[in-house]
Design brief:
Blueprint (H helix, E strand, L loop, with lengths): L1 H36 L10 E7 L3 E2 L11 E2 L2 E2 L4 E2 H13 L3 E11 L3 H15 L4 E9 L1 H7 L4 E10 L6 E2 L4 H7 L2 E7 L7 H4 L5 H26 L3 H9 L6 H6 L5 E2 L2 H11 L10 E3 H5 L12 E8 L1 E3 L3 E2 L2 E3 H13 L3 E10 L1 E3 H17 L2 E10 L1 H4 L6 E4 L4 E3 L3 E7 L1 H8 L23 H26 L3 H7 L4 E3 H7 L4 E2 L2 H12 L5 E5 L5 H6 L2 H14 L3 H12 L4 E3 L5 E2 L1
Parallel strand pairs: 1-6, 1-12, 2-5, 6-7, 7-8, 8-11, 13-17, 13-25, 14-16, 17-19, 19-20, 19-21, 20-24
Antiparallel strand pairs: 3-4, 9-27, 10-22, 15-16, 18-26, 21-23
Helix pairs in contact: 2-3, 3-4, 12-13, 16-17
């Protein structure tokens, strides 16, 4: 009876806490929606500058979030910047007479390499207006400096830091931890380079994996050095030597080697900005934040009867609905069917930013791409990554665009079934017993090891899926299956490398892909529309509210190590055969 009351009390407490959390979310949601409803785009005064800061994560498109400015009980909304609106704001600023220049405040840049490339290209296009770009920071990361290198003037705090050390990629390996826990990762894969499983069976990189990472990381680095070289008029050999010999150790070194134009304090930078905009130094600088300027973006004008649709697919590929941060096969399939059947939509740009996921879900999406291609042009635009399942869903398109620093390829599949028998037996003292009506009724059980025949069965299925994958690519890219296998085997490539071996057709950004789609459809005046339709802001608040709270507090607890916790959590949730990029690539 005592245990019964304990159970009832615990249940009531859980219910009360859930009610409080839901109530809090309701209040926050209402406050946020009221705030958003009354919010107007910032007014831009004459002789203004854009305070261009990228302190928030850059996602593919702006998320409708009415909680952007809400902070209740220490729970802050996760602000993001939509790449689509950043690029649109730069285009508008180029011809906005009230905007005299851009102040790049690059204390932090939260975006992948290809995303940074898109923003950098947008800044280069802005410079064609002859308006100025001035960059300043106390600390420049390598991504931040790559962006800053386009500026007319680059300044750094006299005691500041400029990181110029070359790129590195590091990944955690869990083999030792699994051994201590007596958990065996039973791996079935195809592909010499399919290294997504390595963290669970090795304690360091395999030779094949080291070879591929060395290759694509070198390609990314060469592209970055070339960009800086072009902007700063410094040879790539000199830049390579600076990094290799660690010549930039203090702020003055950056000036000496001409990576920056001078040492300045913030007040001196503000004074220069006032001078450049023709404002008296005793008057406040007129500026508008990038986020506020983005809010005034207007939809593309054009012929309403001629449209080009941009279908966004970002995140892990799974079955089901998914959301703006994950690719649910149902949601993306519906979007592709909608644009295929809409007679006003003349062409489709499929924007992919994904390291893959479920092989089955990838094939479901591939089918919709292939069907859409029969009706109207489909152009793929790759973001930071479009690899494994991300490449699977791309390969049927008419044409594929990638950035030089996009990560792509990884044509391979794998499966992992953990054997936790010893963990339960020896660590927890738990044993299992049962009955079954057929020999393989418990195939895939995690409380016993696979038999030799079961391994053979699963390996056969993995081989079949790999054959299907390479056939899809061969048909889409008009290559032989043998050739696709030779560049496949799970190997990862940079966009530059992928162009040379025929996995992509052109190097270019999303605007290039849109122009190509319109040209294929033979339309000149068109309106851009985006899919899938984003959720209503109020609905978005409550969808996955509990998961969002867990994520929030996990990030607080783990800090910058949250990415490793997230990676392990993802691995534990993997089900079915996977077409997934080798773990999470952390490039610094």
């Amino acid at each position: 009876m005592k245990g019964f009351f304990k159970f009832v009390f615990a249940s009531m407490l859980g219910f009360i806490l859930s009610f409080i959390v839901l109530g809090l979310l309701l209040v926050v949601g209402i406050v946020g929606l009221i705030s958003a409803a009354g919010e107007e785009p910032a007014k831009v005064e004459a002789n203004s500058i854009i305070h261009f800061s990228l302190n928030y994560p850059i996602v593919e498109r702006t998320v409708k979030n009415p909680l952007d400015n809400i902070d209740i009980a220490g729970i802050q909304s996760n602000k993001t910047l939509g790449l689509n609106d950043i690029l649109a704001a730069l285009k508008r600023a180029k011809t906005d007479d009230n905007i005299k220049g851009i102040y790049l405040d690059l204390s932090g840049v939260q975006g992948g390499m290809a995303t940074v490339e898109e923003v950098r290209n947008g800044l280069l296009d802005f410079k064609k207006s002859k308006k100025f770009i001035l960059a300043y920071s106390e600390i420049y990361s390598q991504k931040a400096y790559y962006l800053a290198s386009v500026a007319d003037k680059i300044y750094i705090n006299p005691e500041g830091i400029l990181e110029f050390t070359g790129l590195s990629s590091q990944s955690p390996f869990f083999k030792g931890a699994l051994e201590k826990l007596e958990i065996e990762a039973q791996v079935i894969k195809v592909g010499t380079y399919k290294s997504a499983v390595e963290p669970f069976i090795l304690d360091k990189m395999s030779d094949a994996n080291r070879k591929q990472v060395t290759s694509f990381l070198g390609s990314l680095y060469q592209h970055m050095l070339s960009g800086v070289s072009s902007s700063r008029k410094i040879s790539t050999d000199s830049l390579f030597a600076m990094a290799n010999q660690l010549k930039i150790q203090k702020a003055q070194d950056a000036v000496t080697y001409k990576l920056v134009d001078g040492l300045r304090y913030k007040d001196q930078v503000i004074d220069e900005l006032k001078t450049r905009t023709g404002i008296d130094k005793k008057t406040d600088l007129k500026s508008v934040s990038l986020m506020d300027y983005m809010k005034a973006n207007k939809p593309e004008e054009g012929d309403l009867d001629s449209r080009v649709a941009v279908v966004y697919a970002s995140g892990e590929i799974t079955g089901g609905e998914g959301d703006d941060e994950s690719i649910g096969s149902e949601r993306i399939s519906k979007a592709l069917r909608k644009v295929r059947l809409d007679p006003k939509i003349k062409a489709v740009v499929f924007r992919i930013n994904s390291g893959g996921g479920s092989a089955l879900a990838s094939d479901v999406i591939w089918r919709e791409v292939a069907l859409t291609k029969k009706v109207k042009p489909v152009i793929v635009s790759m973001g930071d990554v479009a690899a494994s399942g991300g490449y699977y869903i791309a390969c049927a398109a008419d044409s594929i665009f990638a950035q030089p620093n996009t990560i792509t390829g990884s044509i391979g599949v794998f499966g992992i079934i953990p054997n936790m028998q010893k963990f339960f037996n020896n660590k927890l003292g738990i044993t299992f017993d049962g009955v079954k009506t057929a020999e393989h009724a418990d195939l895939g059980s995690t409380v016993r090891p696979l038999t030799a025949s079961e391994r053979f069965i699963i390996q056969t299925e993995v081989n079949r899926i790999y054959a299907t994958f390479t056939k899809r690519v061969a048909d889409g890219r008009k290559k032989t299956q043998a050739y696709v296998d030779s560049i496949g085997q799970g190997r990862v490539w940079s966009g530059t490398e992928a162009l040379k071996i025929g996995l992509v057709d052109r190097l270019g950004n999303i605007d290039d892909a849109i122009r190509s789609a319109a040209k294929m459809a033979k339309v000149k005046n068109y309106k851009l529309v985006s899919y899938p339709v984003q959720k209503d802001p109020f609905e978005a608040i409550f969808s996955g509210g509990e998961d969002k709270l867990k994520e929030h507090f996990s990030k607080l607890q783990f800090g910058e190590n949250y990415v490793y916790y997230q990676q392990l959590q993802t691995a534990l949730k993997i089900t079915g055969i996977q077409a997934r990029l080798p773990y999470t690539l952390n490039i610094n």
